[in-house]
Design brief:
The chain has about 140 residues and is an alpha+beta fold. It has one domain. It has a 5-stranded antiparallel beta sheet, sandwiched between helices. A hairpin with a 4-residue loop joins strand 4 and strand 5. Helix 2 packs antiparallel against helix 4.
């Protein structure tokens, strides 16, 4: 793997990951299995971004550092996004995996959440156009 993981331009952490479901999975093996299950259900490879271990820390750092000063100011104005990013940062520091899945809408997000239940996903949020929906416990 390259020194810097590829970062899709619309993925988690660049101010607001509209159209993405973001989940934390503690066990990297479960995270890999969850990504495989999503692919088996027809989710395209380019719609799934899984980062684990040191790559997850590097990924989160790269996303944070890529934000321009204006974007960082907007994140601070919208404290929910900042607190979510801090939550995800803390999770990757503990060695947990982040699974980002591009979804079509909130109904599609519900379908994805149901697929993630067996893999003990938590901290699950759907980033819609104007609102972040906490998907914790939703299936």
């Amino acid at each position: 793997m390259a020194d810097t993981p590829h970062v899709p331009p619309s993925s988690f952490g660049i101010v607001y990951p509209e159209g993405y479901l973001v989940a934390v999975i503690d066990d990297p093996t479960h995270a890999e299995q969850a990504a495989a299950a999503l692919r088996a259900e027809g989710i395209a490879d380019d719609a799934i971004k899984l980062v684990s271990g040191p790559d997850a820390v590097t990924y989160a750092d790269n996303l944070r550092n890529r934000a321009r000063p204006g974007q960082k100011m907007l994140q601070q104005l919208f404290m929910d996004e900042l607190s979510f990013q801090q939550e995800y940062d803390a999770q990757v520091q503990q060695g947990h995996s982040l699974l980002n899945v591009r979804v079509e809408n909130v109904e599609h997000a519900h379908q994805i959440v149901a697929l993630l239940v067996p893999y003990q996903a938590h901290g699950v949020k759907y980033y819609g156009r104007w609102i972040v929906t906490d998907m914790e416990g939703v299936s």
